[in-house]
Amino acid sequence: MKKVLIITPNWPPVSCPDLHRVRTSLSFFQEFGWEPLILKVNPDEQEGVKDEILVQTVPENTKTWQSGYLKKSWTSWLKINSIGWRSFFHLAKLGSEIIVREKPDLVFFSTTMFPLMSLGRYWHFKHNVPYVLDFQDPWVNDYYSHSSYSQVPGGEKKYRTSQQIAKVLESFSLRKVSHVISVSPKYPKVLLERYPWLSEEQFTVLPFGAPQKDFELLPSFNIKQTIFDPNDGKRHWVYVGRGGTDMAFSLRSLFFAIASEREKNPENWQSVKLHFIGTSYAPKKLAVKTVEPIAQEFGIEDLVEEYPHRVPYFQALQILVNSDAILLIGSDDASYTASKLYPCILAKKPIFAVFHQQSSVISILRNCEAGQVVTFTSNDKKEELLPAITNQLNWLLSIDKGYQPQTKWKAFEPYTAREMARQLCHIFNNLL
């Protein structure tokens, strides 16, 4: 049995998207000849939503180590609040101890705390152990440098400083990397152009796996979500996931079409409610609504309810299951791949997606016949999408409550957590 040391600071009960690949694949590692060793950080030190049920999904025999960290009271005067930075040297030391004692065959970084990836090169130098990096998002991100939006997350100064640091550490980390995994086909192209010492053979595009086991367990948890009452006779359409300025075009196109249709046939919309849940990454008290203001622009604020704070993972799944339809809102960034796609398909509800035509979401939905899609390009105007979106809205209004799409589950098998774990372990085997 080969061993892989997995660096994933977020760990149950933390309810965090970057944990998804590791958590859903974990129970399949040994089936494919690998023993996972988990190096994490104290969950109590991490911001965000906690879901105690997530702990029950981790195999009992999983070996885990928890690193120390610097207290916020010691680092706040330097404006260093990230647990990634505060635990950096503790992880470096503990990781070295684990490598010496357990002798893992390789190290796998699966986190969006990107600076921690530089530890891969440190351990490669010190212990001659190969390392693999998992790019779930772009590390160096010039989206806001080229977009028309004036508001930058964290402020312009912080954004520019973080990007300068990212450029240095990304180059440092990728110099000796054995393999890079990416959720988006765009990231490898960018990195190959940026770093001439890398080759195409060092990249694999591997989306997150669909969490089938989570949906199998869901009924046994008897979760009661409080966002809406599924038995109140209304049609509840839901979107669960982040918002942001890059999704404004999709939202405006959707709300513009709804406003146009309601003006023509107001009676069709009397029972419809649109719920947008978890649109902000900020803590509950600081979360700002970004969807309802757009709804107000088009006069449909009475139809739209936004809950910007995040909800626990399994409560989010229950919301999908209780809904009458699921909305998928896409970014104007062509490389955006929605990790929330697979839970939406597994919820077995009608899906309506508005996405950039280059997104991988489009092909997956169409191959599995799991939902309806309207696509756009970077040059489109919302008025140009009106006929296509109107057709899909009328379809959603026409279907009966309880409708289930005739999803091609055979076509869906390549996207399951087990298959993604098999491919991941296959990459590990090839490196050795």
SSE layout:
Elements (H helix, E strand, L loop, with lengths): L1 E6 L12 H6 L8 E8 L21 E5 L4 H4 L7 H4 L1 H15 L3 E5 L7 H10 L3 E5 L7 H4 L9 H19 L4 E4 L3 H9 L8 E3 L6 H10 L13 E6 L7 H17 L7 E6 L14 H6 L6 E4 L5 H10 L2 E5 L11 H6 L4 E6 L3 H9 L3 E5 L5 H17 L10 H4 L4 H15 L1
Parallel strand pairs: 1-2, 1-4, 2-3, 4-5, 5-6, 6-7, 8-9, 8-11, 9-10, 11-12, 12-13
Helix pairs in contact: 4-5, 5-7, 10-15
For the report, how would you describe the main beta sheet?
A: 7 strands, parallel
Sketch the topology as an H/E string, one letter per element: EHEEHHHEHEHHEHEHEHEHEHEHEHEHHH
- Radius of gyration in whole Å, from Cα? 22 Å
Number of beta-strand segments: 13
Structural class: alpha/beta
Mean model confidence by pLDDT? 92
List its traits.
38% helix, 432 residues, alpha/beta, single chain, 7-stranded parallel sheet, 6-stranded parallel sheet
How would you describe what is shown here?
By secondary structure, this protein is α/β, with parallel strands linked by helices. The chain has helices at 20-25, 72-75, 83-86, 88-102, 118-127, 143-146, 156-174, 186-194, 212-221, 248-264, 292-297, 313-322, 341-346, 360-368, 382-398, 409-412, 417-431; strands spanning 2-7, 34-41, 63-67, 106-110, 131-135, 179-182, 203-205, 235-240, 272-277, 304-307, 325-329, 351-356, 372-376.
Provide a brief overview of the structure.
With 432 residues, this protein is an alpha/beta fold.
